[in-house]
Every structure is written in C-alpha cells, then in structure tokens.
Amino acid sequence: MPRMAGLVGLLLIVCAGGCLSNLSAPTMLPPQQMPTPVFMSPPQPVMPLVPPTTQAPVIIPTDTNILPTSVTTPSSDGGRLTTEAVLPNLGDIYGRTAQSADAERNPLIVIPGVLGSRLVDDTSRRVVWGEFGGDGIDPSTPNGARLLGLPMAEGKPLRELVDNVHVQGVLDALEIRVFGVAFEMGAYRDILVALGVGGYRETMGRADLNYGNGNHNSFQFAYDWRRDNVENAQRLHQFILGKKAEIEAIRQQKYGDAAPPVKFDIVAHSMGGLIARYYLQYGDADLPEDGSIPKLTWAGAANVDRVVLVGTPSAGSIDAVENMVKGVVFSQALPRYQAAILGTMPGLYQLLPRSRHRPVISETERTSVDIMDPQMWARYRWGLLNPSQQYVVHQLLPNVPDPGQQQRIAYDHVKKCLDRAKALHAALDVQARPPVGISVHLIAGDAYPTSAQSWVHADGHVSVASKLPGDGKVTRASALMDERYTEGAKWSPRLVTPIKWSSVNFLFTDHLGLTKDPAFTDNVLYLLLEAPR
Q: Is 0.70 topped by the overall pTM?
C-alpha cells in the first residue's frame, strides 16, 4: 500500500479525536517557560498547566518507530554486535484462544473516531467523505459545501435538521486522487485486521492471527460523525439489538438451550469512545430538553461487558477549537474545509474542551473564556459567525437571500450546537462507577507535547499558549478526564476523575500511531481474549 508522507501524512485525521488537521509535531517548552494562565478569581494559589515539579517529557520525532524491546546479537562473522527489534509473535500467543468456540468469547464492536466513516449522498451518489477527487465532492464549491454541511433552520431542533447523506461503512482505507492519480491510505485497517473484524485475515507484523472460519462475532459500527453523538449512541443501541438477535439465532442453532447470553465488547477509537461511554451509562435515552442531566441508569450495561477506549478525548481537545475557528486544510493539493461548513456539525462541537479546564485565555483581558457561550463566538467572530465566512453561509443557505437573516440562522445554529454539547459533557462528566462485572479500559499516548491551552487575541485569532504530555492530538489529562486541571481545584498527587477506569495503559506513540503500535495489539487482544471476566 503506497505511503505519501508529504501529501497525505494528512489524512489520517480519520482517527483524530477532536482534531481534523494534520499538524506537524510541535516542540515542548520547558515548564518554567510555559505561559502562565491567568484567571478571573484571584488571591489564591494559581496552578499552572504543568506543575512546577513536572519534567518535560522526552520528545520522540514523529517518524520514529517505537519498538517494545530490542536484543543485541553477535554478527555472523563473530565481530561487531548488531541490534534488532523484538516483537511478540501474536499468533503463537493468542492463536489457540482466537480459534476457540465463539460461545466462549464476547462478540466485538469496533467504533471509529471522527471522520472514520464513509458518507455518500443518496441523490447524486457522490462520496461526501471518504474519497478525494474522482467521485468525491469538492467542498470549495457551493454544491460541495451544501452536501458536506448539515442543514440549518431557526425553530427546528438539531435532530430534525437532516439531509440525504447516509453512512456507507467504516473507512478501512481512504482513496485520494491527485492530478488523476489514485492513492489508497490505510485508515482503520490496522485495528480491523488486529481484531479480526469483518472477515479481515491479513498479516499483522510477524504473525497472522487466524480467527478461524466460524468467527461471526466481529462488527464495525459506522456512523455519521457530523451529527450529535447522542443520536449516534441511539443508533448504536439499535445496531447492537440487531447484531444480538443474529448471534442469538446462530448460537441457538449450535448450542440449543445451552447457548450463553450475548453481551458485547467494544473497542472505540477517539470520538467513538464518547459514543460508547454515553451508551454504556444511559443506553438509548435522549438528553432532557431542559438541559438537565439524564438519570444514570447504566442501561447499556445490559448489552455490554467490556469497553476499551483508545485515544478518546474524554475532556475534549484544544485542536477542535482551532479547527472550528480556522477551518482545515489537509494538504496543499486539496481544498480547504471552511470553518462555516464545520460549524454546521453538532458532533464537532462535542469535541470542544471543558471551559472549567481553562482551555482558552483572553490575551488582552487575561481571563478565561467560556467557549461554550455563543456570545463569545459572536464576540470573537468564530466559525459560522465570522464575517469572512459570510459567502460560505450564503452557499449553505441559498434559499435565504437576506444576509441579516442568514446570520440570525447561523447564530441560532451555533447556540443549539453549543447547548447540546454542554448537555452531553455534563452527562458524561458525572461520577459514575460501573455495575459489577462491567469494565472500562483506557489506552492513550503520553510521549508527545500536545496543545492544551490557547490564547485568543482581540481579533479572534487563536494561538497555542501551552502544551501537556499526550499523543500530539489528545492530552494525557483529557484522555484520563483529569479534574486536577479544573480552575480553582486543589492539586492532588492522585488522579481525580469521574471515570472509574478498570485499567490504563500509555503508549509512546502519536494519536494516529496508537492502533499501529504492537503494544496496542498485544494489550487489546489480552483484554478481549484472555483476561479473566
């Protein structure tokens, strides 16, 4: 499979949690040089984003392969020593377990991250997301902008603002055409191959893990990543019920009355982890219309046994702010995805960080900015409310000729998206201890400096203020949902988080490399195939 590091090192934004862009690896300032955030509430000790005792993490270049171990062996001539990587033979370790009777392991669902599902327009049959060139749309054209952006209308809830775009599977690979030449980039192929999803039987590194011919237990949940993640959690519920009925019928034929009950394991990458967590805690319940927190029922636990979150931005990503303000350019050879188009998508607002963690600081006023307040978006002219994006708003609303009405519709849409995101965040942030037998595991990165806080300047421009350890896209603190970074919080040596993690593993790779890391595959296979229940 060809690799184009320059042109489309781009792309595997398909896995980027909270960030749509492919930024080069940043440099980490030493803690003593970090910009010191300032707050509205004074005369109390101010906790910097990086505690004074914290050492700057080791910076690993983006093109470095992280190898778990190495072994030094003599050369063939008995002279100079050579070093070669040592990787586990996963076929030897898990092969027998992988081919065990399907009744002895839970069926698996893989949920991709933002941009990880292919979108196709029902009317034109054009690819809205998942192909560049060829049958793919051009978002710089009025028609392309309307196909990618979601509808907007005053007086209608987000749920009713639907278009003719449907989901056409998970992006196991992404096709890009540049100057008429097609290239295919692996998107979720690594994780699908590793877990034997959808009939994949390709080689993983040094070993082919054969799941046998009777493996009917692995599925991909594709979803419209533009839309509200509560809607997607409700679709996940229907998906699980359908697959559960299929598996129960198969097991009934094979095992009769001795067939075990069906519960699923979930491996969710990036934004997919938000969907999995909401479903686990609330099932298919909607968020209350008054903005209150729904009752914590753990309804999803009736169908789910184990959840593994991979690089999930549980507390959001500062990159989402930058993308929503500036738009995204994936490559110089490809068009810009304008901020106004992204601003129509409720799912992207739900990747924003929590205001209580002070992600954005006013450069002029030296105070924390509430990024969930639509008035701040109007003040700083972000996204749909930027006058320079008016022509895009006009493309999105061709039947509304009055610019003033267009802006009222845009503001109303921003407010609805922010209100929905705020309500979802509140529901996910409650203290939640899973029922007995339910486990929630985290795999994240913490070796790369990752944007954690931004300045907003008087003209609305945002720039990086400070960084924390992470995977280059999602900070370690966000993955853990670390509340020690809450404004005014007293520092504790122990993690403070509303999520009751069953286990946490950190890898020394970047966001896009998490699912490619042999340590990821090894640890996930252990959790799914061997770990005691």
A: yes
